[in-house]
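So, who can interpret the following?
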Amino acid sequence: MPDKKLRTRSDKQSIDRFINEVRTLPNRGGSGQGRLIFALDATGSREPTWDQACHLQSELFVATRDLGGLAIQLCYYRGYGEFKATQFVSETGQLLNLMNGVSCLGGRTQISRVLAHALKETRTKTVKAVVFIGDCCEEPVDELCHTAGELGMLRTPVFMFHEGADAHARAVFQQISKLSGGAYAPFDRNSPQALKDLLAAVAVYASGGAKALQDFSSRSSAEVKRLTQQIR
């Protein structure tokens, strides 16, 4: 059985690297309400942690209340080719209601559709960031990387949050985040606090830019303060 202290240290190092990557991204400024796409793999393998994701999504709103807030669109795939994207909402209750209406259903991954959808949305009106939470990838890598690169050209970073330890998914998710100008961070079902901090970090960045993230860190939890001091 893995040592708990080692796992905790690994989680903290992952958050450290992630926030460091976020803070090196171009400052987008804090004017207006940022648009963020919250994309989820809702296939069968994600069922054990779906309720956790529903709970933690509130961090996307809570962390940005003083920055003009966020407009968030829920996007998910599941089953046999099912792909859905909701309207953009700006209240926690609205997003929670949308997520509560979704259940997991076995099927193949459709990350390419998530990225293509994000590309279409940001060409219509700027999307400040895309958050993706998933555990595997069953699609051609080149197509995913090409679309990720297009998002990078449009300055819409994709933040890939990887549940589990699938090596292939890790490699693909890292490429997507790099080409889009975003960041990659792993987590597991035993570290909900890690995911909570990561979601809050991206939400603050999407709403107010790199400077807002630095300010957020200065008044956040002791763990985030420690990470921010290390980055400095």
Residues 222-232 have pLDDT under 50 and may be disordered. The chain has one domain: 33-231. The longest helix spans residues 192-218. The domain at 33-231 is CATH 3.40.50.410 (Rossmann fold).
